[in-house]
Design goal:
Length: about 180
């Protein structure tokens, strides 16, 4: 059963209630998360004062909690067995589960390589990971540096965006010199 494109607190609660009353992932509108996003965005953009502002904030918090719980329940039901049940999952939920699948494949590669004496593969994986490109935005000025791939990078000014090796990006992020930027395809 598909939900209408328009969403409000009552309809979201009904969807969550139906989800909790069934053992399998329920069919919902393919636009569910977009509808929730539009609803919350509209609420947050509206300016209220006094009591109305408190009511709006409480409604946004309630929608946040309902959505978080709904997503968690749907993902748990989809993965309750070793094989993921993709029926009735939304694209956004599949996006999350694909990352879990990638993680499991990586665990298998490392375990298999370690236990089968494939140290060259382990070295290759480590090197590729250290030097894979990561996009960052600099929060502070930074002098020129030598990357994990032995190439020169910089100098950088605050707000510059650059692609640098993962290992260097992580070091700069941990020191609050840069922040990671996610580019969605």
């Amino acid at each position: 059963m598909s939900e209408s494109k328009k969403i409000d607190a009552n309809s979201l609660y009904s969807i969550l209630l139906r989800e909790t009353e069934n053992d399998t992932v329920q069919e919902v509108s393919t636009e569910l998360y977009v509808s929730i996003s539009d609803f919350v965005g509209k609420l947050k953009s509206e300016g209220y004062d006094g009591v109305e502002a408190k009511v709006k904030d409480a409604l946004v918090n309630m929608i946040t909690d309902l959505t978080s719980l709904l997503l968690k329940i749907r993902l748990e039901k989809a993965t309750k067995t070793n094989k993921i049940d993709y029926s009735n999952l939304l694209d956004e939920e599949k996006f999350i589960l694909d990352a879990n699948e990638e993680r499991n494949e990586r665990i298998d590669i490392i375990l298999s390589s370690t236990l089968n004496g494939k140290s060259k593969l382990l070295d290759s994986v480590a090197t590729k990971h250290k030097t894979k490109s990561t996009v960052v935005r600099f929060l502070k000025e930074m002098d020129q540096m030598i990357g994990a791939d032995l190439a020169k990078y910089g100098p950088f000014k605050a707000e510059d965006v650059a692609t640098i090796p993962y290992e260097n990006a992580q070091a700069l992020i941990s020191k609050n010199i840069a922040t990671k930027i996610r580019w969605e395809d």
